[in-house]
Amino acid sequence: MKNIWIATNNVDKASEFQEMFADLGYKIKTLNDLEDVIEIEENGSTFEENARIKAETLSKMVNEPVLADDSGLMIDQLNGSPGVYSARYAGNHKSDADNIKKVLDELKNVPKEKRTCRFVCALAISRPNHETVFFKGTCEGEIAFEASGANGFGYDPIFFLPEINTTMAHLTKTEKSKISHRGNAIKQIKNNLYDLF
After folding, report:
1. Is the pLDDT of residue 34 over 80?
2. Please, what are the domains in the chain?
3. Phi/psi at 126 (nearest 5 deg)?
4. What is the pTM of this model?
């Protein structure tokens, strides 16, 4: 079984990647598999910049190909916020519940037709002696009026999918990976997988 390094210490995100790559015989390794715990500072102004920073930093450390993702929620009514600040929208303590509460408060009196949003995922693959390459995936939806569902993580409980009349947090990992922003970006990588890893 081959390894794919993912530049994350988010166990939920790592689990999603494992689900997506398992059928191809790849095992996920993350920052949590390093001997020393490291935190890579994400100070880019776009999802692509942050993904590049993470991928190139870890690739230099392990001298192997590394996949990094930076993703977030963009809400039209909030001019694209929370965007690259999605994980720490309510503060640097990174609480999903607080982030959700902040979004719901900001959209308190906004009608359904103006609650459009999308999840965006930028993936960067950094390989020794190669240029970093990028893939991007999106998933369109609306912000629900209240949180619902116990699966997933992040903003999934308020990310409403009109075509299936439920939030992302009601989907299984397999169902989510078929339609999610990360799943859509991973599909592009799978088509080029053996050239990249």
Report:
1. yes
2. 2-196 (3.90.950.10)
3. -110, 130
4. 0.88
